[in-house]
Structure formats: structure tokens, C-alpha cells
Write a structure and sequence with these properties.
By secondary structure, this protein is mainly beta. It is built from 3 helices and 28 strands. The chain has helices at 2-15, 20-26, 99-103; strands at residues 32-40, 43-48, 51-59, 61-69, 72-80, 86-92, 95-98, 109-119, 122-130, 139-145, 148-156, 164-168, 171-177, 186-190, 193-196, 201-209, 212-219, 224-229, 235-238, 246-250, 253-257, 261-264, 267-271, 276-284, 287-294, 300-305, 308-314, 318-327. Mean pLDDT is 91; it is low at 1-20.
Length: 328
């Protein structure tokens, strides 16, 4: 208990420092900007090096993902309306676009936006739409590039899977399901062409190393994590890790996170507990950034850089959802 108290007091002292940029960069080998998406005082918000910014039109909502590209800031968020419908929001440099309004047509309404990708000045979203005139639960899986829609499958009956999107060297990769199948209905679309994975494999997300694309997730039959190089077809099975929730490559290091633990080159570097569990993490240029919820019953969210608490927020004031780091 004393160690937790000391850690908490130390974190509060750090928050009070005047020059947060110096604090962040003293914890790393190279200058960086740390961005966080979340919610503050019941308003969608983001933080840059501990400076908070409330997002216009985000009252009652939250920011769920944040990207920086060509010095432009892109934030994805959402809010639940009084009728329990979800409204999906996007901010570019603070300017709000309601994605439901932007993407709805008389024939198809937005059901959900599940991911965002930004490459240069091109902005991609992926998600599901539904014909509002049909009672039957049939959905389209689609992505939008700069507002232009591409339908991947128009007969999806389960829109709960969180489809993911990644764009590498002009190739669009989308993890999702297909209706044109017998028993291998889950996999990845590569430039709109579906490639199934083995029965039992459940993909979580996509990552990139040296322009090579890797998918990762869990084999539900064997309860083992895995990742697969899409170019070579080589699949790596992680027999001691039951699932891969996040995979990152940094220099010659491989970082894998399951539900509670983070591993570097198969060595555990962080383990969640009742008093501390990770929300997101980034590995960049030999530095590790971990977004955590900490304290008794999760009383505050914090950002750690190389095990140093650099800033935090108490959950009665807001919370953190996602992290990105930009090398200066």
C-alpha cells in the first residue's frame, strides 16, 4: 500500500510540473509528442503532452482513436443519443464531421464505424450500414476513402465484429467476415478480394513492419495466439500466449500484448492486476508508452513512458481510451 501511495504522490507531483514537454522528452531517447484520445468533463477530448483540448460538438461523447499525418490531427469518436442510437463523429484539426450524416443515403444508414486509417492526406473509415426500410438484420460491410464508399459484402448478418482497416502501399486491408462461404467465413479483404483464415482463427487487428503486413489474433480451437505475414504466408504460433490483442514491431524487437500482459521478445514487461491494467500501448524507437487504468477500482488513468508516470487524470474528471506517439 505504501508503494502505491508513493507512486501516486510522485505522479501528482509530475502533473504539477510546468514544462510537460520536458518531462515527456526526458523520459525518452528522442523528442516526441504524446497524443491521447478520450473524454474530459463528459466531452470528447484529446491531450497533447498533457494539454487537454475539448472537441467541438463532443458533449456527451468520447474520442476513441487519434492519428497524426502530414501535421494534421485526426480524431474518431462517438456518442450515444437519447434513443440509444450511436452517432459517429470525426474531427480533422478540430473541425467536426458527423459521419452518420455524411455517409447516410436513402438506401443505407450508418450502423457503426469501427475503425479509421489515415495515410498522407487520405482518410479511411470502415464499418457497417443497413437499409432502414428493411426489418431483416442484413448489413453492408464497407469502407470509405475520402468519403467515397466501397462495399465489401452486402449480406452480412452479424455486424458486431469490429472490422479493422490498414492501407499499405496503396493496398487496402480490411479484417471482417464474408457471406460467400461454407465454413471459412472470417478473414481479410485485400483490395476488396476476400481471403479466409483457418477455421478457429479469429483475427484481432493488422500491423506493419517494413511495409510488410501482419494479421494477428487467436486460434480459438487451440487457445494460442498467432501472427501471420501476409506477403510470405509464414504464421508464428505463440504457444504460451493465448491471444494476441496487439502486435507491434520496433527496430528488432517484437511486442505482443494479450488481455492482461505485454511481452517484449517473449519476455513479460508488464502484467495487469486488480489495481492496474493496460488500455493501450505503443513501442517506438526503443521507448515503451503504456496507457493504464490504476488505483483501487480504477480511480485514475495514467500514461507511463519507460515505467515513469508522466501524466494522469482521475476518472471522475475523464478517462483515456487510445494512444499515439509522433517522433519529432
Amino acid at each position: 500500500m505504501m508503494n502505491k501511495l508513493v507512486s501516486l504522490l510522485f505522479a501528482i507531483i509530475l502533473i504539477g510540473c510546468n514544462d510537460v514537454d520536458d518531462l515527456v522528452n526526458s523520459s525518452t531517447q528522442n523528442p516526441v509528442d504524446v497524443y491521447i484520445a478520450g473524454v474530459k468533463t463528459n466531452n470528447a477530448a484529446y491531450w497533447k503532452n498533457n494539454q487537454s483540448y475539448l472537441l467541438t460538438g463532443g458533449n456527451g461523447g468520447e474520442a476513441t482513436k487519434i492519428c497524426v499525418s502530414n501535421n494534421n490531427l485526426h480524431v474518431l469518436g462517438k456518442k450515444t443519443l437519447d434513443n440509444w442510437r450511436t452517432e459517429y463523429l470525426y474531427w480533422e484539426n478540430g473541425n467536426l464531421i458527423n459521419l452518420n450524416t455524411a455517409f447516410n443515403t436513402p438506401a443505407q444508414y450508418v450502423h457503426s464505424i469501427t475503425d479509421m486509417e489515415v495515410v498522407g492526406n487520405d482518410v479511411y473509415f470502415v464499418g457497417y450500414t443497413k437499409n432502414p426500410l428493411l426489418a431483416v438484420e442484413i448489413y453492408e460491410l464497407a469502407y470509405w476513402k475520402n468519403g467515397v464508399k466501397t462495399v465489401l459484402d452486402n449480406n452480412i448478418n452479424n455486424p458486431t465484429f469490429q472490422a479493422k482497416i490498414k492501407v499499405v502501399t496503396n493496398t487496402v486491408y480490411v479484417i471482417g467476415n464474408t457471406s460467400s462461404c461454407f465454413n471459412s467465413c472470417h478473414g481479410i479483404y485485400v483490395n476488396n478480394v476476400f481471403q479466409s483464415v483457418s477455421v478457429g482463427d479469429l483475427l484481432k487487428d493488422i500491423t506493419v513492419k517494413d511495409n510488410q503486413v501482419y494479421v494477428y489474433g487467436t486460434n480459438t480451437s487451440t487457445n494460442t495466439g498467432f501472427y501471420k505475414n501476409m506477403a510470405t504466408g509464414v504464421e508464428t504460433t505463440l504457444t504460451t500466449i493465448p491471444s494476441v490483442f496487439k502486435l507491434l514491431f520496433d527496430n528488432n524487437n517484437t511486442f505482443v500484448a494479450d488481455v492482461v500482459n505485454i511481452f517484449k521478445n517473449n519476455t513479460q514487461i508488464y502484467s495487469s492486476s486488480f489495481f492496474s491494467f493496460y488500455l493501450d500501448f505503443i513501442a517506438l524507437n526503443n521507448n515503451v508508452y503504456i496507457l493504464k487504468r490504476e488505483g483501487d477500482f480504477g480511480t485514475f488513468d495514467a500514461v507511463y513512458i519507460n515505467d515513469i508516470n508522466v501524466f494522469q487524470i482521475f476518472v471522475d474528471q475523464g478517462r483515456f481510451n487510445a494512444l499515439t506517439v509522433v517522433q519529432n
